[in-house]
Automatic annotation (TrEMBL):
Localization annotation: Membrane
Protein name: Very-long-chain aldehyde decarbonylase CER1-like C-terminal domain-containing protein
Pfam families, A to Z: CER1-like_C
Primary location group: membrane
Lineage: Eukaryota, Viridiplantae, Streptophyta, Embryophyta, Tracheophyta
Keywords: Membrane, Transmembrane, Transmembrane helix
Keyword Transmembrane helix: yes
Occurrences of domain Very-long-chain aldehyde decarbonylase CER1-like C-terminal (ranges): 189-353
GO cellular component entries: membrane
Source species, domain of life: Eukaryota
Record field: transmembrane: 67-88
């Protein structure tokens, strides 16, 4: 027995080494990595390495958390000086080992021009480490895929064209979630906010479904025109009125813009971050693009930012589906996968629209 082996020094020390190596390899092995980052100063408490009580609930700024600002400020300074990502969550789905890694930067860092190089270096370091660990897919979450930062991930492919893993920005699934959130019978929608890659994909998809997409900004209208298939181009309209009762909104759709919508409007975000809910006169707001996860996705003990428990952002789900399907292509830069194919695959693996949760 091991106890007597220990007393009489007859233990096979190589077995200890083998055991330690096997544990280490199991801990390091990963198939899918989702790269996220910190958002507000209090967001670190809502991650699993923070407080379990906070992490198990959707993120919301609480009055009592304001008294913790000295600790929040200190954690911000420490993470700013920290030179690497950290593991925020580990999950398992079927045979996939899934991890969420957080870049130690906050939202405001991504708006600082002098921080862009440092942030890109942190992301590159994480991607290369994931590749080294044998990951099949890395999905870029939140501002880690910002067009102004890295061209929706295209920068990393140019820098490392021989990556063994696939980079996914999740545009196709995020757009599919939005497009499939439009109530049946809707014949026109207003699209308002900064025109992102997801917004372009949503507009094109709705126009192809013969739904009129109304743009209230002339510059945005001209930007979107070449993105719409020729046989559906007549469904993209420029109008200042915006009388439709379904509005698809992104960042930039401020309170003034939302007040132009008629009473009872349904606002559906296409942005990574939830919009400010400026209307309370019978208007409703959907969650940011997300899906509820199947029971086969295990170890989901924390909420992803502001989303409910067992609900994940479409960008995060996209990476998991990409790996489950074994797709051998990237989705970053200008590349957008077939929305119907991605949507069907997500449903096939048990992911569901949040409304069905």
């Amino acid at each position: 027995m091991p106890f007597y082996d220990y007393i009489y020094n007859t233990m096979d020390k190589s077995s200890d080494t083998l055991h330690e190596k096997s544990i280490e390899s199991k801990e390091e092995a990963v198939d899918v990595v989702h790269l996220t980052h910190l958002t507000s100063l209090q967001s670190i408490y809502h991650m699993r390495p923070g407080f379990a009580e906070f992490a198990s609930k959707p993120y919301a700024s609480k009055w009592y958390m304001r008294i913790m600002w000295p600790l929040s400020w200190l954690s911000m300074v420490l993470t700013w000086t920290y030179g690497s990502w950290f593991t925020a969550e580990r999950n398992v789905m079927k045979k996939l080992r899934i991890q969420s890694w957080a870049i130690p930067r906050y939202n405001f860092h991504y708006g600082l021009n002098w921080e862009k190089e440092a942030i890109n270096n942190l992301i590159v370091k994480a991607i290369c480490e994931a590749d080294k660990k044998g990951a099949k897919v890395v999905s870029l979450g939140l501002l880690n895929q910002a067009q102004s930062l890295n061209g929706s991930g295209e920068l990393y492919l140019q820098k490392y064209p021989k990556l063994g893993l696939k980079l996914v920005d999740g545009t196709s699934l995020a757009a599919a979630v939005v497009a499939n959130s439009i109530p049946q019978g809707t014949d026109q929608v207003v699209l308002s906010g900064n025109i992102s890659k997801v917004a372009c994909a949503v507009a094109a998809a709705l126009c192809k479904k013969n739904i009129k997409v109304i743009i209230t900004n002339k510059q945005d209208y001209h930007f979107l025109q070449p993105k719409i298939p020729e046989d559906a181009a007549d469904n993209l309209l420029l109008s200042k009125t915006g009388i439709a009762k379904v509005w698809i909104i992104g960042e930039g759709a401020d309170a003034t813009e939302q007040l132009r919508a008629p009473k009872g409007t349904r606002f559906i975000p296409y942005s990574q971050f939830p919009p400010r809910m400026a209307r309370k006169d019978g208007c409703t707001y959907s969650t940011t693009p997300a899906m509820s996860v199947p029971k086969t996705l295990q170890n989901v003990h924390s909420c992803e930012n502001w989303l409910p428990r067992r609900v994940m952002s479409a960008w995060r789900v996209a990476g998991i589906v990409h790996a489950l399907e074994g797709w051998d292509e990237h989705e970053c830069g200008d590349m957008v996968l077939d929305m119907d194919k991605v949507w069907s695959a997500a449903l096939l693996h048990g992911f569901r629209p949040v409304a069905e949760a």
